[in-house]
Amino acid sequence: MLPIVPPPAATSFLSERINTMQESQTIAMAKKARALAAQGVDVINLSFGEPDFQTPQYIKDAAKQALDEGYTFYTPVPGYLDLRQAICDKFQRDNKLDYQPNQIVVSTGAKQSLANVVLSLVNPGEEVIVLAPYWVSYEEMVKLAEGVPVPLVGRLENDYKVTAAELEAAITPRTKLIMYSSPCNPTGSVFSREELGEIAAVLARHPQVFALADEIYEYINFVGEHVSLAQFSEIKDQVITVNGFSKGYAMTGWRLGYLAARPEIASACEKMQSQVTSGACSIAQRAGLAALQGGRDSADEMVAAYHRRRDLVLDLLKEVPNLPTPTPSGAFYVFPDVSAYLGRTAPDGLTLATSDDLAMFLLNDAHVATVAGTAFGAPQCLRISTAASDEKLIEACERIKGSLAKL
Question: Options 3.90.1150.10, 1.10.1740.10, 2.60.40.10, 3.40.47.10; which CATH number does 16-54+298-404 get?
Answer without folding.
Answer: 3.90.1150.10
